[in-house]
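Researcher: Quick test of sequence recovery. Tokens follow.
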């Protein structure tokens, strides 16, 4: 790639392309991460939906599939977070990704061990706070982004964050191609991070029935709902979301309790650990009691769609960008294509030649 694309991110993460595949629960498996890393970008393994004690095995699986550097994304305030942090350090993982409720102690341990701290933030003030807490690179995700998301559009958030912090900023939320990469660099970012685009690749583990919903979605079908877990989440509209949007409080409470029980079984966490984590979530994120109760809905309902292949009863976290994606390339094809498009776009800007389509 032209030197313009060899940004500080490439040197910090040890990759060829300034492209990150973000952590996505149930989706960013060792196979997807390794495919991304082998293609010259940087992948984050999703640990938030794994049993903490099993994260180490998944890290080892990534290592068996690639000798390139990779990261692990997890929730610093969930039950077993310290177990995951220790597995990251013990295995010499290059970077730790996290977002809500950053934990100063875990960040300190990463810094001592030389693990890069890469939080994702949805607002400029959160990026400034993340820098104070020790972030080495900050991913800022605009409102177009998939899953839990803020309300600031990517176009406004990226330059605001670049101006507000002194560490490198990576742009996320709505990226899928080389034109986006050039735009992000023009805003002052050092690269792009993509979730939905990598979910829609051949190496993604998402079952066909669910993937088809992403392929069929138009931009206007991807909306923000607070009814999954009480926090704004961008999702592909489906039967479940329509139902949740019109459910009464009692039905929502029953669903939340069912998810809580399923989460307890799946995570192996004790009731005490779950309560401690829920209370810390409530305190740090200033959640209402009902938001706190609904917290387990997200992983459990996502599992239905992402693992069990049921896009009717499960929910489909997604960036708006799903509405403009219509193919399932391999990760290598995708990354090469983005690199070629970015190069052509840059050429067209500097030489006035035909823009990349
Ligand atoms: C299916 C899906 C699952 C996600 N799960 C997580 C997660 O477990 N942890 C996390 O920090 N972010 C999660 N996210 C957010 C992504 O990591 C990323 O920030 C976002 O997808 C970027 O926007 P884009 O989809 O427009 O590329 C998820 C997003 C999607 C689409």
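Model:
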């Amino acid at each position: 790639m032209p030197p313009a694309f060899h940004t500080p991110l490439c040197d910090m993460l040890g990759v060829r392309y300034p492209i990150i595949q973000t952590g996505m629960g149930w989706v960013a498996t060792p196979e997807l991460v390794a495919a991304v890393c082998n293609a010259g970008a940087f992948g984050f393994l999703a640990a938030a939906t794994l049993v903490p004690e099993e994260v180490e095995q998944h890290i080892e699986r990534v290592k068996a599939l690639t000798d390139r550097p990779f990261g692990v994304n997890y929730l610093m305030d969930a039950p077993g977070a310290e177990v995951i942090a220790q597995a990251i350090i013990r295995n010499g993982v290059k970077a730790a990704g996290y977002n809500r409720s950053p934990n100063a102690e875990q960040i300190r341990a990463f810094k001592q061990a030389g693990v890069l701290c890469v939080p994702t933030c949805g607002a400029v003030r959160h990026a400034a706070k993340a820098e104070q807490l020790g972030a080495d690179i900050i991913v800022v995700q605009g409102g177009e982004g998939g899953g839990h998301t803020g309300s600031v559009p990517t176009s406004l958030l990226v330059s605001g964050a670049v101006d507000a912090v002194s560490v490198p900023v990576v742009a996320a939320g709505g990226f899928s191609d080389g034109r986006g990469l050039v735009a992000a660099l023009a805003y002052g970012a050092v690269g792009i991070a993509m979730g939905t685009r990598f979910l829609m690749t051949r190496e993604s583990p998402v079952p066909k029935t669910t993937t088809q919903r992403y392929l069929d979605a138009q931009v206007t079908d991807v909306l923000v709902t607070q009814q999954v877990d009480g926090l704004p989440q961008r999702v592909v509209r489906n039967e479940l979301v329509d139902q949740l949007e019109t459910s009464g409080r009692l039905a929502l409470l029953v669903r939340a309790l069912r998810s809580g029980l399923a989460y307890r079984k799946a995570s192996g966490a004790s009731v005490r650990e779950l309560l401690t984590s829920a209370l810390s979530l409530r305190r740090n994120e200033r959640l209402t009691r009902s938001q706190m109760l609904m917290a387990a809905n997200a992983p459990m309902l996502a599992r239905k769609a992402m693992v069990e292949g049921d896009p009717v009863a499960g929910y489909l976290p997604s960036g708006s960008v799903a509405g403009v994606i219509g193919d399932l390339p391999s990760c290598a094809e995708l990354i090469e294509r983005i690199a070629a498009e970015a190069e052509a776009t840059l050429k067209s800007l500097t030489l006035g030649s035909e823009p990349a389509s």
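The CA atoms of residues 222 and 236 lie 4 Å apart.
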